[in-house]
Amino acid sequence: NAGVTQTPKFQVLKTGQSMTLQCAQDMNHEYMSWYRQDPGMGLRLIHYSVGAGITDQGEVPNGYNVSRSTTEDFPLRLLSAAPSQTSVYFCASSYAGFNTQYFGPGTRLTVL
Amino acid sequence: RKEVEQDPGPFNVPEGATVAFNCTYSNSASQSFFWYRQDCRKEPKLLMSVYSSGNEDGRFTAQLNRASQYISLLIRDSKLSDSATYLCVAANTGNQFYFGTGTSLTVIP
Questions:
Q1: Residue A91 near residue A61 (C-beta atoms within 8 A)
Q2: Distance between CA B95 and CA A99 in Å, rounded?
Q3: What is the predicted pLDDT for the residue at B8?
Q4: Which residue of A has its CA nearest to B46?
Q5: Residues of chain A neighbouring B44 (CB-CB closer than 8 A)
Q6: What's the gap in Å between the CA of B90 and the closest CA on chain A?
Q7: What is the pLDDT of residues A2-37, one digit of tens each?
Q8: Hey, is the C-beta of A99 within 8 angstroms of any chain B C-beta?
Q9: Cα–Cα distance, A110 to A72 (Å, whole number)
Q10: Which of A55, B58, B92, B100, by CA, is between 20 and 30 Å from B50?
Q11: Are A42 and B99 inside 8 Å of each other by CB?
Q12: B32 vs chain A: nearest CA distance in angstroms?
């Protein structure tokens, strides 16, 4: 099993550009989530999904969109990148909402 | 008020020492609790779940006090390899995980 995979590992964007961060898991987990991690702020939940076709907002959803068309994939879209979105983004999955979460290796995003 | 609060440290301890981290959570309805470990520039990885009765895994002991809404982690006989950031987590019934900002530990030879 590959576990949770994320692409790309690193990305530099200019303000106003859009992009999609990819996340996939092969553990047949129903629950998937996206976090951002900033110095001194810890991990903050952006969006999450409890199953295919179902998504919900977390603590810091503004500026991000998600969709969940399959159990395996949970992409995160930045609609119009801003410097405040410079961060490390982690995708995670778990069997259920409050079970152990398994994290991907992260995407380091810089917005200039 | 943050959902989960931790002392950021840093904690610098000699090898072989015992060190304890505490964390408080604000939502009394939180259902599940965990300690995660995060190495520099890596993803968080589960260290251990925290059960109401307390639980131990080798040199690591986790405790939960629901009345006071705090979680603790005790590391005995610290190793150099224990140097990392330790994240406290509370999960609620709304399928949301709340992470503390982490406590930095450096074990010194």
A1: no
A2: 9
A3: 86
A4: A100
A5: 43, 90, 103
A6: 9
A7: 899 999 999 999 999 999 999 999 999 999 999 999
A8: yes
A9: 26
A10: A55
A11: yes
A12: 6
Place of tokens 């395996």: A72
Label the pairing between strands A87-94 and A107-111.
Answer: antiparallel
User: Is residue B78 a contact partner of residue A14, using CB atoms and an 8 Å limit?
Assistant: no
Between chains, do B91 and A105 touch, taking CB under 8 Å as contact?
A: no
Chains A–B, number of C-beta pairs less than 8 Å apart = 55
Q: CA A38 to CA A44: how far, in whole Å?
A: 9
- Per residue in B2-51, pLDDT (tens digit) is 889 998 889 999 999 999 999 999 999 898 999 999 999 899 999 999 98
CA distance B48 to chain A (A): 9
CB contact set of B73 (below 8 Å; sequence gap of 6+): B20, B21, B23, B35, B47, B48, B60, B61, B62, B86, B88
CA-to-CA distance for A26 and A20, rounded, in angstroms?
20
B43–A97 CB contact, under 8 Å: no
Give chain B positions within 8 Å (CB) of A99.
Answer: 32
